[in-house]
Known about the structure:
By secondary structure, this protein is mainly α. About 65% of the residues lie in helices and about 0% in strands. A two-stranded antiparallel sheet has the order 1-2. Strand 1 and strand 2 (about 270) form a beta hairpin. Helix 2 runs antiparallel to helix 4 (about 75-100), helix 4 runs antiparallel to helix 7 (about 160-185) and helix 6 packs antiparallel against helix 7. The structure holds Phenylacetyl coenzyme A. It comes from Agrococcus sediminis.
Amino acid sequence: MTLTAPDASARIDAEQEAELQARFDALIEADQRIEPRDWMPDAYRKTLIRQISQHAHSEIIGMQPEGNWISRAPSLKRKAILMAKVQDEAGHGLYLYSAAQTLGISRDEMTEQLITSRARYSSIFNYPTPTWADMGAIGWLVDGAAICNQVPLCRASYGPYGRAMVRICKEESFHQRQGFEILLELSQGTPEQHAMAQESVDRWYWPALMMFGPPDDESPNSAQSMAWKIKRFSNDELRQRFVGMLVPQAEVLGLTLPDPNLRWNEERQAWDMSEIDWTEFNEVLAGRGPANAQRIQHRRDAHEEGAWVREAAAAYAEKQAARERVAA
Ligand code: FAQ
């Protein structure tokens, strides 16, 4: 072999990579989808794995605050609706784990990252649900924020993620309406029920605004994710849009949003609002929120208690495969 060969092949590789990068850039520029078999830059793959797995974990951990009320729902109808909603969240987690798997990470790795607290999930699910009205506030505010954030993700440049989001958003929209309806019924009920609805909205409003992430000038991932057309709007843009959606709905509900400084600023064409308590947000992200430890412990216990199901499924699959080998 001559000395020039490795250099030549390296040059070809670099050229090939530049071509692949150019093709990727052109697809993004033309608003086309990137699919699992397409070449993609490592950083794009990593960002997607991070965001999609965090999103999947959020859906799975997000089952806990509402799961708390399934056995205590005030009527059979409410119980059935709540069970269906929590099951939908499990389904969303599964679509999203599958979408992340197309990028080369296994479900086991993602689960391991979650139960060893190496992965993030949405801050919102680290708050407790002491009253029934919290089921209304979660539907109205948390699913409402999720929809606002996720409708633009239906156009995310990565095909499996965007397609998963289409179905998820349809279900989230039903979830939001059921939450609104719980709050409306409470708000129009006895003075005690009205007060319970208001108290719950007071507790969930600010954490729901935090779901959109840090302010734009402190969001390290936004610029690149927007250039790759994973995110279509910045964190602050979506937060503004969400507040604009809530204001008229709160009026219909007869409830108040707990921000005395909230008003439309005609000049800025934006909502003026009080400063979000970013210290609280950072504390929750650091694992020191009101329910972080409980949520992870619960997930860990469920994983351990479910080991026999995974083992049985694997043994069954192996038996089936052996039967097929014999038959072939
Ligand atoms: N909580 O640079 P950015 C749901 C982290 S699903 C925790 O702005 P990015 C359905 C962020 O990961 C709710 N961590 O990051 C449901 C990053 O950390 P890293 C989940 C947060 O990715 C309803 C760092 O801060 N939805 O609710 C949060 O560009 C009812 C810097 O932030 C999604 O996951 C937070 N709130 O923008 C279920 C939607 N915010 O990884 C049950 C998809 C930021 O660099 C019941 N995700 N961080 O260490 C997204 O749209 C984005 O990932 C953002 C964050 C907007 C969340």
